[in-house]
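Structure first, sequence second, as always.
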C-alpha cells in the first residue's frame, strides 16, 4: 500500500494542527476534505476537528459567486490543503495558472484536468515542486498516467460513474489494487461522493482521501439511535436530578 503522507504534507499538517483547525488525529488515516467553495461551510466543519482539506471546482466557485483568490486564501487559513482548479485547457495557460495559484499560499494544491495538456502540466508542476490534484479521472489507465506524470493526488469521480450506470467504487478498488503493486506516491482521492456509504466504502478500500459535499458531510455524525439514546439519558437524568 502506498504511503499517504510525504514530508511537506506532514509539515503543513503540523502547522494547521497547531492552529487548532485541522483533523487532529488524521495523520495515517483516510483524510476528509470538504467539496465546496463556501468559506462559511469550511469554517463550520473545520470547527469539528475532523477536516483535512478542501476541494473546489469552477462549478462550485460559480455557485458561490465570490472572488476566487480571496475564497481560496480564506480556506487556506482553515485547512492545510485547498485544491484550486485551473480553467485554461492548453498547457501554456494551465502552466501560468499553476504558477499563479501556487504563489498565493503554501496550502494551495493546483487542480489540473486529466487531459494530455493536463499531463504536461502535471509534469511541469512536479518539476517545480508545485503540488497537484488531477481531476476528472474515470479509468485506471488515466489514474496511472496522471501518477506517472507526477500528480500528488488523483481524483476519480465515483458519483458521476454511478450516474452513468457504472459502479464508481469498483474503479477505486481497481486503483487501490494496482497501487499496492508499485511505489506511486500519488494519493487516491475519492471524489464526486453522493451519500455517507460512499465515505465508509472508500475507507474500507484504503483510499487516502475522500472529498464530501457539505450536505453529506453534515449527515456523517448522525444516527437515529444516537438521538434516541441521548433523549433517554436526558429523560432518565431529569427524573432523578430533582430528588
Ligand atoms: C472533486 O474535486 C470535485 O469537485 C467533485 O467531487 C465533483 O463532484 P460532482 O460530481 O458532485 O460535481
Amino acid at each position: 500500500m502506498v504511503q499517504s503522507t510525504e514530508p511537506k504534507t506532514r509539515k503543513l499538517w503540523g502547522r494547521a494542527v497547531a492552529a487548532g483547525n485541522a483533523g487532529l488525529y488524521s495523520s495515517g488515516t483516510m483524510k476528509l476534505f470538504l467539496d465546496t467553495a463556501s468559506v462559511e461551510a469550511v469554517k463550520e466543519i473545520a470547527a469539528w476537528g475532523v477536516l483535512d482539506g478542501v476541494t473546489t471546482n469552477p462549478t462550485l466557485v460559480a455557485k458561490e459567486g465570490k472572488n476566487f483568490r480571496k475564497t481560496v486564501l480564506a480556506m487556506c487559513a482553515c485547512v492545510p490543503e485547498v485544491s484550486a482548479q485551473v480553467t485554461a485547457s492548453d498547457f501554456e495557460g494551465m502552466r501560468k495558472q499553476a504558477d499563479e495559484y501556487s504563489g498565493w499560499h503554501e496550502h494551495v494544491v493546483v487542480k489540473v484536468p486529466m487531459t494530455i495538456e493536463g499531463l504536461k502540466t502535471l509534469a511541469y508542476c512536479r518539476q517545480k515542486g508545485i503540488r497537484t490534484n488531477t481531476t476528472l479521472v474515470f479509468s485506471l489507465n488515466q489514474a496511472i498516467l496522471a501518477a506517472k506524470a507526477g500528480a500528488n493526488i488523483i481524483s476519480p469521480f465515483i458519483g458521476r460513474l454511478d450516474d452513468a450506470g457504472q459502479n464508481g467504487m469498483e474503479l477505486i478498488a481497481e486503483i487501490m489494487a494496482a497501487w499496492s503493486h508499485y511505489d506511486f506516491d500519488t494519493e487516491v482521492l475519492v471524489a464526486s461522493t453522493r451519500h455517507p456509504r460512499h465515505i465508509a466504502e472508500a475507507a474500507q478500500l484504503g483510499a487516502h482521501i475522500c472529498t464530501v459535499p457539505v450536505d453529506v458531510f453534515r449527515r456523517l455524525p448522525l444516527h437515529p439511535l444516537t438521538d434516541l439514546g441521548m433523549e433517554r439519558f436526558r429523560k432518565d437524568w431529569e427524573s432523578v436530578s430533582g430528588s
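Margin note: The radius of gyration is 19 Å.
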